[in-house]
Amino acid sequence: MNESTVLNADASEIAKFSALAHKWWDKDSEFKPLHQINPLRLGFIDEIAGLAGKSVVDVGCGGGILSEGMASHGAQVTGIDLAERSLKIARLHLHESGLKVDYRLIAVEDLATEAPASFDVVTCMEMLEHVPTPASIIEACSRLVKPGGWVFFSTLNRNVKSYALAVVGAEYIMGMLPRGTHDYTRFIKPSELSRMARNVGLETVTLTGLSYNPITKVYALGEDSDVNYMIACHKPA
């Protein structure tokens, strides 16, 4: 393991997701929210970037929920993660789905050094709030994407409402996520994320909120970015 991996990976976060790895494809498990929002994420990415025939790298792919979704839309997908158990589950699920995804145990910074400007689309969803230095991840994503390509990020906003809903509500009251899933101090405001992207040559084109209705139990895209949000960034040609 080289220096970049050591510097920008939280061992406790990797251990947390490794312990849950066997549940990645259980739609009634702790990963239920990811399965529920996956069609929304896919639609957002596909509408902007057009996945069919594109080369895509899914950074922090976990068990492959988004990776497989993009592959089903005709993309040539590489999924990378540092949780080896999650990658094993992702590879096993390919036998069930019949899809093709190249899963690799590698840090995004290392892949960016190995294969710069190699992908039409880069996705990094629900990961930035789990790493010590998100700016390093964003910079690596910028290096990975081809000029004229797209980079997509999703994360959690940092404010009182997001703490109340994403941490207190989701983890302690409704039990939608295991307690300790999120560290509020690592949440990132959209202005901060856009600035970090701009600093590495990415132009933020659009932002959408991802909200949850606890009564209907339905997720939806919209203007409310107070808690969860996604941004699409373009790399100038």
From TrEMBL:
Q: Does the keyword Methyltransferase apply?
A: yes
The top EC class, named as a word, is transferase
Q: What's an example of a GO molecular-function annotation for this chain? A: 2-polyprenyl-6-hydroxyphenol methylase activity
Q: What is its EC number?
A: 2.1.1.222, 2.1.1.64
Can the keyword S-adenosyl-L-methionine be found in this entry's annotation?
yes
Q: In which pathway does it act?
A: Cofactor biosynthesis; ubiquinone biosynthesis
Print the keywords alphabetically: Methyltransferase, S-adenosyl-L-methionine, Transferase, Ubiquinone, Ubiquinone biosynthesis
Q: Which NCBIfam families does the entry link to?
A: UbiG (TIGR01983)
Coiled coil feature spans = none
Reaction equations catalysed: a 3-(all-trans-polyprenyl)benzene-1,2-diol + S-adenosyl-L-methionine = a 2-methoxy-6-(all-trans-polyprenyl)phenol + S-adenosyl-L-homocysteine + H(+); a 3-demethylubiquinol + S-adenosyl-L-methionine = a ubiquinol + S-adenosyl-L-homocysteine + H(+)
Under the heading InterPro entries, the entry gives: SAM-dependent_MTases_sf, UbiG_MeTrfase
GO BP, one annotated term: methylation
State the family named in the UniProt similarity comment for this chain. Answer: Belongs to the methyltransferase superfamily. UbiG/COQ3 family.
Q: What does this protein do?
A: O-methyltransferase that catalyzes the 2 O-methylation steps in the ubiquinone biosynthetic pathway.
Where S-adenosyl-L-methionine binds, per the record, is at 41, 60, 81, 125
Q: Which Pfam families match?
A: Methyltransf_23
Encoding gene, per UniProt annotation: ubiG_2
Q: What is this protein identified as?
A: Ubiquinone biosynthesis O-methyltransferase
